[in-house]
Amino acid sequence: MARKILLITTDQMRFDALGCNGGLVAKTPNIDALANTGINYKRAHNQNVVCMPARATIATGQYVASHGVWMNGVSLPEDSPTIAHWLGSHGYLTALLGKAHFEPWLGSPDDFYENRMAGLGQTGPHRGFDHMELANHFLEGHSHYNHFLTNEHPGVLDGMYPMVNAAGQQNTLGGGDTGAIQVWPTDMPRDIYHTDWVAERTIKWLENVATDQDWFVWMSFPDPHHPWDPPASEKNRINWRDVPLPALYPGSAAAAAALLKTKPRHWLGYFDGSLWTNLESPRGFRPCDLTTDQIREINAYNHIENELIDEACGRVMDYLAARGWDAETDIFFTTDHGELQGDYGLLFKGPYHVDSLMRLPMIWRPAPSLGGLPAEISAPVGHVDLAQTFCRIAGIPEPDWVEGKPLPMTEIEAEAQRRTSVLTEWDSEHGPVDIHLKSIYQDGWLCTLYQPGSLYDGTEGELYDLNNDPGAQVNLWTDASRRSLKSDLTAEIFDKLPAPRKPRLERRAPV
User: Fold this and answer.
1) Is the per-residue pLDDT at 1 higher than 80?
2) Domains of the chain by range and CATH?
3) H or E segment and range at residue 425
4) Going by C-beta distance under 8 Å and a sequence separation of 6 or more, which residues neighbour residue 166?
5) pLDDT more than 90, % of the chain
């Protein structure tokens, strides 16, 4: 019997959302306990800052260039090998409960099994998972959670945020006390909110697993991704008026505009609405119109959702202990990407390679039976390393298609692995606008190369000394004294990234 593996992910959670990472708003004692008894990776990055490419990397252990999911709306091919396939072939039962998003939500159910499986009364197998029950953070009509509400709680759906408007685009409706975009306390009992539903379905699946059976479970919460719509009964957990503005909020719209002028032009274009480059933000939304009270209220609701996630994690961890499984279970906690949440005066996510979106909470609580000591590791790691880590836990060989390294358990091991850098990519095409970014974090430097596209000719970029400028506010890209450093870092990007998959996969839906 090998060790069991629980992978917990959230959607769009910042590194600093958790108490163990310096968060001061949400109470996250259960997740903090994992860090306090396990390994907290302080410089973990995703390999792409939006959902589908990031999740494909977690599933495959490959860089975006290799698995080919280059932006949202591009489906991971069904014949792509995943770590669930590999673990399953070595005796593990596998399940995914919650958000998958390997296929486009807004794609036709005729084309994508994830969008028709619930309607068929099926739960897989799919993509190596013996069992899947899917949930989303908006009601798209086809997930298992959507069917659950429709069939067992009619009427609840009527009060949920209408995420997609009549034009088929993200909605800009606002609510709460300030009218903040996509703030929408929902009139539903807490125990049927998707956070609690995901935890309940995870426990229900585990109840049918034999005690001596090895298993890999991916418990995937749809929150704290917008819309910020927790049950209305929970909205008084945090008074938005008491929530501080983000440390990287420039102080005013004018100050934000002045800062963003020092960055490549799509930053300011997003802020003032003059250049729409990003389907990840609602069309027509202008961050320059946000008030400070709206930023506070958005962050309050975001952190309420974080608290609900923490409590749901606690229930599942209590179940593992009750089953006698905890001592032999490795638990991982991470997210797919972050959220700007007012940093630089901006909101949501997009082609912005900064800590707000790239730097992840990543915690590994090894099975307590190993008797390890808690650790914090500063060496850079990434999503690409998870698949090989799961193989290490299972005591099985690595498949030949993975591209990372097993996560180090100590700083000494990280040094032996020569962990000096981590890479992140971005590619997007929205109408006539295409943007292509490649970034490297190395030795406290963050370098982002802008490749040729509709906005940039390939000479532009960003370079930040995060040791002295942790907020990435002083762009040193054109600093003559940094020319050699910039050249070395950009060369490292191309030396370490695999060649792009050919032919390029087709984008088949908006998201």
Assistant:
1) no
2) 4-157+175-250+291-419 (3.40.720.10)
3) strand 421-430
4) none
5) 94
